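[SOLVED] Predicted holo structure with adenosine-5'-triphosphate

Edit: marking solved, answer below. Original request kept for reference. I posted the sequence and ligand SMILES and asked for the 3D complex as C-alpha cells.
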Amino acid sequence: MLSVSGLNQYYGESHTLWDVDLNLEKGECLCVMGRNGVGKTTLLKSVMGLLPAATGKIEFDGKDLSKKAAEERARAGIGYVPQGREIFPLLTVEENLETGLQARADRSRKIPARIYELFPVLHDMRHRRGGDLSGGQQQQLAIGRALALDPTLLILDEPTEGIQPNIVDMIGKVIKTLNKEEGLTVLLVEQKLQFARATADRFAIIDRGSKVAEDDIGALSDDLVKKYLTV
Ligand SMILES: Nc1ncnc2c1ncn2[C@@H]1O[C@H](COP(=O)(O)OP(=O)(O)OP(=O)(O)O)[C@@H](O)[C@H]1O
C-alpha cells in the first residue's frame, strides 16, 4: 500500500536519511523505532510531503506521490498525527476537527460520528478551545482530526509522548480497533516498547538515518533493543 524506496533527505549540509526503504501492506501496523534524533520524524514528514526528499520514491496505492504536495497526499487518503500534536489552540475542538475535513475526497463537511464514539471527551468538549485541553485530550483531538479525512493510512508520530498511562492505554486500544477491526493501515513512530509490542505487527529500526533492522514484532529481541533502542 505504501512503498518508500531509496529515500535520502538533507537539512542543509547534514545528510539525515540514507537510502531508506519501507514497505507497508494494506491492513498492517508497522512501528518505526530508534533513539532520539535518528531520523524517525524526518522519515514521516518526508512521506507526508512536509519535507522535500533529495532522492527516492514514495508510492501509495500504486500512485507516485514523490512530487505531490502534502495536501494532495492527505487527499489521497493519508492521515497524519504529528509529533507534539500541533492542534490549533484558539480554534474550538469542533473547528479543529473540521480542518481535517478539508482533505476529504468526498468533500463531506460533517464531522463523522465515529470520531466522537472513539473519543467521547471530544464531544463533551466540542465547544471548548483546543488550547484549553489537557495533553491527553489534545492527542485524542489530533488523532480525531486525522481520522476526519477518512484515511486509508494513518501515520502517527509518538502518540504516547508525555501522556498519562490510562490515556496511553486508551489510545492503544483505539489504534488497535481501527487497525484490526476496521482495516485501517497504520504507520507509527513509537519509543515505548510495551506499546509497540502491543500494537504493531512489524517493526523497523532506524539508526543514524539508515534502516538497520526490520521484522515481525515478535522478533524484536533484547539484543536489538540493547543495540539500537536503549539509551
Ligand atoms: N529543521 C531541522 N533543521 C536541521 N536539522 C534538523 C531539523 N529537524 C531535525 N533535524 C536533525 O535531524 C536529525 C533527525 O531528526 P528527527 O527529528 O527526524 O529525529 P527523530 O528520530 O524523530 O528524533 P526524536 O525521537 O527526538 O523525535 C536530528 O539530528 C535533528 O537534530
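OP edit: Residues 11, 14, 16, 34, 36-42, 83 surround adenosine-5'-triphosphate (CB under 6 Å). Thanks to everyone who chimed in.
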